[in-house]
Each structure stands twice: as structure tokens, then as C-alpha cells.
Specification:
This protein is of the alpha/beta class.
């Protein structure tokens, strides 16, 4: 059924389809009993809970950052059964992102290319929505599971790299009361110069400052770092060394890639699309390779959330067997549809 719907939706602009689909889901969830019906169809069955970072996740399947940038669709994504949703990337000031079109499908490769550029409403507006969500869900109904919310934070495009730590601090402090964990994003290829912050000295300044701020809060929140799949082994080693040195809570591996190797999509089409981060099936092998390397190098001392090319339960188990604690989908959600969490959880239960 979804494949037929997908064929129709793929006729239209990807960014327009994204908001059309989510707003349609919002309309259905607001009908009397609508959310309950959708949850009964798409929520995974049985006990799929998993605990890490001192957080109880309803299941191990999360939605990666960039899908619900502004915390607009938490209610709807909860109905689809996601164990956690990572909002953002959030920046201190609102910014429109890069010029449209900026999101492209590569159906032959089961992939996407995006150059969104951290388009978001700014941290103040996102905080308002999260606060309203928390107040509404303060006393959940018996038998329901609280959605875990991650906060993915970044810097504004106009902020010079030497001042970037201030942007991360502003977002961290503003979001701290309303999210369950943080992911520091220095690995998007769509903000000029951002990936330079993956170098050890720049990372050390950003992360140790956030840890210092975290220690002053009544409740400490886990802080993770999201890394690019394009890092060299030496760069990954430097990240691992820093993570162990400062006792970072975890890593997210990995973000989108700037590589265009071994794609089925024609060179002409790729040239027409231009720059951007590639996600989906082509990133699967490299993402798993990085997860496995980090897990083995650290003997499992650094928890890992795996992201990249996860479409099925077999894909998720590949990441888990490589050493991941949790997995995140994004492109797989677009191609597989609203049953992806239910299907992956069912398949994982068969493997275990």
C-alpha cells in the first residue's frame, strides 16, 4: 500500500511532500480517537524497552535529526511508534537555510541528498513548543510510554568558528529543561566551515564547556557527539581519544557523506543536483564500519547511536551487532513508510 502511495508522492517536490505528509498526519491525529487508532496500527507490539544513559527508551528505534527540526510533530511521531525523536538541528537565532530546491531523491540508490543548511525557527521558538509538549504530557495515561526527545544543537551560519562554542552553549542551556539528551552537530556538510569544528582542539573547547554547564544543572543530561562518515581513521582516533579523555556520554555515527562513489544515479543527475549530504543505503556500509571500529577500539566503553542506511530489521541488527546501542532512521522512513518502526522492532525480536 505504501509503495503505491510513495510512487505518487515521489512525483512532487520532496520538501513540499514532507510538510504535506506530516500536516496530513497531524490532521488525522487531531480527530477524535485519531491518534489512538494510528498508534494501534503502527506502534510496535510487545515489550521493546531499552535502557541506556539512565533513560528508558520505549524501543531502540529513533528518528534522526533534521526530520522534525522545530519540534512541530512530536505528537504525530509518537503515534508512529518511535522510541525517540531527535529535534533540530537547532541554532540560537532563526535562519532560513540554503536556497531551494535543497532536498533531492535518488530512488535508484534508495538515497537522498540534502543541503538544508540548518533551517530552523531558532531556539526560543523551539523551547516554547517543547515546554508546551512537556506540560501536556506531564501525567501520561496508564500504560503509555513517554517519547524520549533528543536535542541536536548547532551554530548559526553567521557565527565565526572561534565563537561557535557560545552558540552551542546558548542552545544547550535553553533546551536543557526540555530534552532528555543532547547531540552536538559539528559534522553537517551544509554549513560552510562547520566540519572544521571536528578537529580535536575545537571540539575540546565546545564539549568541555557544555559539560561544565551541565554539571551546574540540577539534573545532568547525556551529551553525545555526531561525527561524519568522511573522517579519516586518524580523525576518528582523535575523536575517540577526546571522548574517553573528557568522559563524553556517547557518539552518533554517522552524519551524511559528501562522497558520491558507486552510485547508480547518473553522473548528469548528480551534477544537476550539486552539493549536499548524501544519506540512505549508500552510507550503510561506511556507517557500520565506523560503529564497529569505535566499539572495538574502546572495548564498548563509548555508547553509540548508529545512523545510516537503516531500512529493515536486518539493517538495524547489523548496526547493533557492530556495537550500537540504539539506531536512528531518516531516509529509510521516507522509503519504507510509517510502518518502519513496527517492522524493525518485530524483526529485531526475531533475531534476538
Amino acid at each position: 500500500m505504501y509503495k503505491l502511495l510513495r510512487s505518487f508522492l515521489f512525483l512532487f517536490d520532496p520538501e513540499w511532500v514532507h510538510y504535506f505528509s506530516m500536516n496530513s498526519l497531524r490532521f488525522l491525529c487531531r480527530l477524535p480517537g485519531g491518534k489512538a487508532v494510528i498508534a494501534s496500527i503502527f506502534n510496535p507490539k510487545g515489550n521493546n524497552q531499552y535502557s541506556i544513559f539512565n533513560i528508558q527508551f520505549p524501543n531502540r528505534i529513533g528518528l534522526g535529526a533534521g526530520f522534525d527540526k522545530n519540534a512541530r510533530y512530536l505528537n504525530e511521531l509518537e503515534a508512529l511508534g518511535f522510541g525517540c525523536v531527535e529535534i533540530g538541528t537547532v541554532t540560537p537565532l532563526p535562519q532560513p537555510g540554503n536556497d531551494k530546491p535543497r532536498l533531492f531523491r535518488l530512488p535508484k540508490d534508495k538515497a537522498l541528498i540534502n543541503r538544508m543548511g540548518f533551517n530552523n525557527d531558532g531556539v526560543d521558538e523551539v523551547v516554547k513548543r517543547l515546554k508546551a509538549w512537556r506540560e501536556k504530557n506531564r501525567n501520561p495515561e496508564p500504560g503509555t510510554r513517554n517519547l524520549v526527545i533528543g536535542g541536536n544543537i548547532g551554530k548559526n551560519k553567521i557565527t565565526p568558528n572561534e565563537e561557535a562554542w557560545k552558540d552551542y552553549e546558548k542552545c544547550f542551556l535553553a533546551l536543557h529543561p526540555y530534552v532528555d539528551y543532547f547531540v552536538v552537530n559539528v559534522s553537517s556538510p551544509n554549513t560552510p566551515g562547520l566540519r572544521e569544528l571536528q578537529e580535536k582542539d575545537a571540539l575540546h573547547k565546545i564539549l568541555t564547556n557544555l559539560q561544565n554547564q551541565n554539571s551546574k544543572c540540577k539534573t545532568q543530561k547525556p551529551i553525545l557527539l555526531k561525527i561524519a562518515p568522511d573522517l579519516t581513521q586518524e580523525q576518528i582516533d582523535a575523536v575517540i581519544e577526546l571522548a574517553l579523555e573528557i568522559k563524553l556520554d556517547g557518539l552518533v555515527a554517522s552524519n551524511t557523506t559528501i562522497s558520491r562513489e558507486q552510485l547508480l544515479t547518473t553522473h548528469h543527475k548528480l551534477q544537476t543536483i550539486g552539493a549536499g549530504g548524501l544519506s540512505g543505503l549508500p552510507v550503510k556500509a561506511r556507517s557500520t564500519e565506523i560503529v564497529k571500529y569505535i566499539h572495538q577500539k574502546t572495548q564498548g566503553r563509548i555508547p553509540i547511536i548508529a545512523s545510516g542506511g537503516i531500512f529493515t530489521g536486518a539493517d538495524a541488527m547489523e548496526k547493533i551487532n557492530a556495537g550500537a546501542s540504539l539506531v536512528q532512521v531518516w531516509t529509510g522512513f521516507i522509503y519504507e513508510g510509517p510502518s518502519i518502526v513496527k517492522n524493525i522492532c518485530r524483526q529485531i525480536n526475531k533475531y534476538q
